[in-house]
Amino acid sequence: MTGNEAMAEAAIRAGCRAYFGYPITPQNEILEYMAGHIPAVGGAFIQAESEIAAINMCYGASAAGVRTMTSSSSPGISLKMEGISYLAGADLPCVIINVARGGPGLGNIAPAQGDYFQATKGGGHGDYRMIVLGPATIAEAIELVMLAFDLADKYRVPVMVLSDGMLGQMMEPIMLPEPVDPTLLPAKPWALSGARGRDPNVVTSYFIDPGDLNRINTQRQSRYHQIEENEIRYRETETSDATIIIVAYGAVARIARTVVVMARSQGIKLGLVQPITLWPFPYAPLRALSSQVNTILTVEMSAGQMVEDVRLAVADRAKTPFYGELGGLVPTPKDILREVKRNVS
Amino acid sequence: MSVNMDNMVKVFERPRSLTDAQFSYCPGCHHGLVTRIIAHTIDELGIQDRAVVVTPVGCSVIMYEWFRCDGIQAAHGRACAVATGIKRVNPNLIVFTYQGDGDLAAIGTAESIHAANRGENITVVFINNQIYGMTGGQMAPTTVVGQRTTSCPNGRNAQIAGYPIRFAEVIAQLDAPVYVTRQALYDQKRIMAASRAIKKAFQCQVEGRGYSLVEILTNCPTNWRMSPVEANSHLMNEVIRTFPLGDFVDRD
User: Fold this and answer.
1) Residues B151-209: tens digit of each pLDDT
2) Is the residue at A143 inside a domain?
3) Are residues A182 and A306 in the same domain?
4) Exposed e or buried b for every residue in A113-138, given b needs 16+ CB within 10 A?
5) What separation in angstroms does the CA of A256 have from each of A242, A249, A252?
6) Whether B93 and A192 lie within 8 Å, measured CB to CB
7) Closest to B73 in 3D by CA, of A84, A89, A46, A45
8) A244 and A180: one domain?
């Protein structure tokens, strides 16, 4: 199974019963898998006329109380940003997979991490946050897609799984989790189901009175604070005695695991921190590690986006160099090891 | 003189599907009429407890406060996609959009055409008042040639801005829609006809027959800078020359 197919199957097993998408490389296998499989479990599938239509179909299906997902790749995710802002503003759960590619503009179809700012800092308008999960392997992608649906429902927020063309297209052995029965999920009393025996439910992000909007937005911010309190996830590898640490997420974290082994065999005390939640970002653990090491090297397939969060966490307690490859080039373990050595000498 | 109320029979009342909230429409505007007709239709068909209104961006954005049914506010132009999402996951709901000309026929052109082309079992109420009302009277895709607006102060020039879009006719080219009509509200006869058309469009959905669109020529006295009476005459004498009334699709 490719990463894309595995994520689609994971979504169905998470109880997703509505998928709307539009073709774009390198995520087409998600759309194609859903076309074949989600109707078989009674779910809705539409190949929409655009990414904009797809995210708005999600907005409707989610409002009707169903676990809902869309997927796309970078240029298509840009088109979904309006809809993501509306989902956030109307407190609707939804899972969005970004199988990211090179940009800006049409860029190319190679793996890249240039969408970190867009995903974690609010690519749409207004004061909102989106939980962003970064898998490094297909097994993690499956686990995080399942988690994404739970977090989206629990906090009534859109959740993005930020993958990339490498993870989407590669194959590796996996274990699939037991399917969730969507009829056993917690009820959604706020959903549009027909005003029978109750007052009408309304789903909206529109509050013309500034006092009302202030109150609604403040309540939402307190939910975001709960997410920051409860949901930060990251993985540490060989950090306890490290003098230098790599911070990397997604496909780069996977490559960096190899670099840790290579460096250790050469006597370099290298550790790795892989943020799994990109928002909320693991500032505190990095801050704690920063007084124990000399150097925290951030590696990304971008010109340097997550490194800004790393520098916020570390401040001047350690050196914070950056190494990045652009344009869809994937750094090799050797490339990264070279950067490590440059920073330990 | 005293009136004995006990012997009186109520022949006209507020539709049960309307809440007590006051409309925010301008005096003389046809929006209020259409809103009332829809509520009356929901009462007649007995679908208040499964109706969902998808509200647009425009003068009717808070329509969900006026209907006693579930409601959802859609991003500008996206109402038909939102309605699609709801209807596909819960076909038992009666889902209708209420959209103006800017919403449906400019920014939402793609969503509007493709929902119709898929034959979504939804009802689309399209308010064609030839102007952007809530933003203060700019040119709409339906503004008639020569009509002055704040963004075509010398009148719509077809050489620059093209011609008004006849959206009902566009939708009528597709194979899937079951009922496509254009109505108006400038006199009592037209109001009765429009009421029948709206009821028929909802019935299509209740019977599971598929997509229907009711385009309604309406006024905007405020932004047309006319009295309501002048606005009605303008509709009857001028606007219908660009937008002919009648059924364009009526499939069994």
Assistant:
1) 999 999 999 999 999 999 999 999 999 999 999 999 999 999 999 999 999 999 999 99
2) yes
3) no
4) bbbbebbbebbbeeebbbbbbbbbbb
5) 14, 9, 6
6) yes
7) A89
8) no
Here the ipTM equals 0.96
To the nearest whole percent, how much of chain A has pLDDT over 70? 100
Percentage helix, strand, coil, to 5, in chain A? 45, 20, 40
Backbone φ and ψ for A38, nearest 5 degrees, come out as: -75, -35
Residue A313 lies in a domain: yes
Q: Could you list the residue range(s) of the whole structural domain that residue B48 is in?
A: 22-250
Distance separating alpha carbons of residues B4 and B16, to the nearest angstrom: 25
Residue A140's nearest CA partner among A109, A162, A158 is: A162
When scoring A51, A203, A205 by the number of chain B Cβ atoms within 10 A, the one with the most, hence best to mutate, is A203
Q: Please tell me if residue B59 touches chain A, with a CB cutoff of 8 Å.
A: no
End-to-end CA distance of chain A: 43
Give the CATH number of the domain where residue B244 resides: 3.40.50.970
**A28 shares its domain with A144:** yes
> What's chain A's length in residues?
345
Backbone angles phi, psi at B5, to 5 degrees: -70, -20
Phi first, then psi, for residue B97 (nearest 5°) are -105, 155
Does A120 share its domain with A51?
yes
Number of domains in chain A: 2
Residue A270 lies in a domain: yes
Least CB–CB distance from A56: residue in B61, B71, B111: B111
- How much is the pLDDT for B11? 86
| Partner residue facing B73 (CB), from A50, A194, A203 | A203
Pairing of strands B138-139, B131-132: antiparallel
Q: What angle do CA A45, A94, A13 make, to 5 degrees?
A: 60
